Amino acid sequence: MSLMISRMAMRRPPEEAQDGTGDETIVYGTSGCALGQLLVARSNIGVCAILLGDDRDGLEADLATRFPKARLSANDAAVRDDLAKAVRFVEHPAERLHLPLDLRGTPFQCRVWEKLRAVSIGRTVSYSELARWISPYASPRAVARACAANPIALAIPCHRVVHGDGDLAGYRWGIERKRELLRREAAI
Fold it and tell me: Do 93 and 45 meet the contact criterion of CB atoms below 8 Å apart?
């Protein structure tokens, strides 16, 4: 999967990168998809959130919690292309998802998310395997926490991480959504 991440996003001060401080405005839009509702949010750098859920209100509340200091502006037109790409990816994962990203996380979380981007469509990895890719000292639990903190569903494919025995592990947006994403990707 080929995704672009702005170098500027990676150089943000940690406090700004975590919660959208200052005079930042984040625009977002929502759409229905095969997995329920999908919200895409964008900063002036790139997509900073792709959230999945059952309803628009719940997604907007989740976005507000993730970016408490930013001005949030519902603007479907401003994120139309990003939203269409995310919905199309759910429907047809073979088309891949190419979006400029604004990653906001700790250095460890960003390393986990970068490694996740290397997991090809139709493949899964275990938390232990992913931890070994990061460092011989990385903990599978720490990797699992980084996956759970991922605010950019689909583009950072944490749904491709499973238990060592191949069983599905938790997924921030629901185990049934994870199962369906993996089923769609395996069908390619």
Answer: no
Q: Where do we find the tokens 């603007």?
A: 75
Known catalytic residues? 158
112 burial via Cβ count (<10 Å: 0-12, 13-18, 19+): buried
What three-state secondary structure class fits 28? strand
Domains of the chain and any CATH numbers: 4-101 (3.30.160.70), 107-186 (1.10.10.10)
Per the structure block, which two tokens stand in for 87? 């919905």
Closest CA to 55 of 37, 68, 77: 37
pLDDT for residue 170: 83
68, amino acid identity: P
Which helix (H) or strand (E) segment is 36 a member of? strand 36-42
For residue 22, name the pLDDT band (cuts at 50, 70, 90): low
Global pTM reads: 0.86
Report the 10 Å Cβ neighbour count for 121: 19
Q: How many Å apart are CA 61 and CA 186, to the nearest integer?
A: 32
If residue 49 lies in a helix (H) or strand (E), which one and from where to where? strand 47-53
Angstrom distances, CA of residue 119 to CA of 16, 44, 130, 161: 28, 27, 10, 9
